[in-house]
Amino acid sequence: EATSLQSVEYSDTTWALLFNASEGSVFAVASLRQALAGIALQNLSVPSSGLFTEVTGLVPDGLTVDGIDYRDAAGDLLPTIPDAKALYMQARQGMASSDFNGVTILLPQGSGLTETVEQINGAWQKDCSLFFSVEEVPQEEFDKRLAAGSYTIALAPIRAEGGSVYQMLQQFTAEGGGLTGWSDPIYSQRLAESAQQTGSARCALLADCERQLLEGCAVVPLLGQQKRLLVADGIKGLVFDPFTPVLDLTYTTKN
Predict the structure, then answer these.
(1) pTM for the whole thing?
(2) Rounded to 5 degrees, what are φ and ψ at 215?
(3) Which residues contact 38 (CB under 8 A, 6 or more apart)?
């Protein structure tokens, strides 16, 4: 007898473009990052695999802060870059083509996003006459290089470990690992302040941090990764928290 399944969808991961903005990098220039981010976002389409969704910020839908739906409270925080092409021309003043030697796009093997990277790379070539080699490497090597800052551009999964908005944003402070080499004392200060607050005040400080982070375009959220829990029909009383993760069967019954 066939069993029909219900699907519980959730996401704890956002795939984002990371520009290595550490001192001495070509992407230490904010206007250059913003121009390339604007072009990438304008030319982005959601893959047809059904595994990815559109996003309105770095923090995925469904995460809560003191019981408040964070994404609803923070709203759409993706940067708006009206004329990315003109901004690029401006950012290139004083830069040589050789400044882009060695720039590659790093992504983990098996991500399902090779086509997305090719799409963005093609748009950069068309609008900016820039074309970068794509490096698809095994997950372990990818993680090591990301942690060491040994990349120029990466397409990386940014996770909310334990469903924590604070933890997701902390990865972009020096104390939290300095994922892109970008840092700002105001960002770190606001984030620290958020830990002292509760409820809507905490939410507002976290949203200020997310907005500041995304406006700088060292991190450019592209897609949310969909995950699913499949539950057989007739199952009741199942407690599921994807972010802990907890699957509590204590009071579960089957009709």
Answers:
(1) 0.86
(2) -65, -30
(3) 79, 81, 82, 84, 87
Which pLDDT score, from 0 to 100, does residue 240 have? 42
Which SS3 state, helix, strand or coil, does residue 240 take? strand
Count of Cβ atoms closer than 10 Å to residue 155 Cβ = 25
Cα dihedral 77, 215, 132, 47 in deg (nearest 10): 0
Contact present, 23 and 178 (Cβ < 8 Å):
no
Say if residues 79 and 116 touch (Cβ distance below 8 Å): no
User: Lowest mean pLDDT: which of 27-31, 145-149, 175-179?
Assistant: 175-179
Residue 249 has pLDDT above 70, yes or no: no
Strand partners, 248: 239
Give Cα 54 distance to the centre of its chain. Answer: 11
- The tokens for 157 are 């999964």
Pairwise pLDDT comparison (247 vs 111), residue with the higher score: 111
**pLDDT at 241 > cutoff 60:** no
Strand partners, 13: 159
> What are the residue ranges of helices labelled H in 70-198?
70-74, 84-91, 114-128, 139-148, 165-170, 185-194
φ, ψ of residue 241 in degrees (nearest 5): -120, 105
pLDDT of residue 2: 46
The residue to which tokens 């408040």 are assigned: 68
Other beta carbons less than 10 A from residue 33's beta carbon: 26
Rounded Cα distance, 139 and 170, in Å: 22
By the 8 A CB rule, do 137 and 146 touch?
A: no
Question: What gap in Å lies between CA 44 and CA 39, rounded to an integer?
Answer: 9
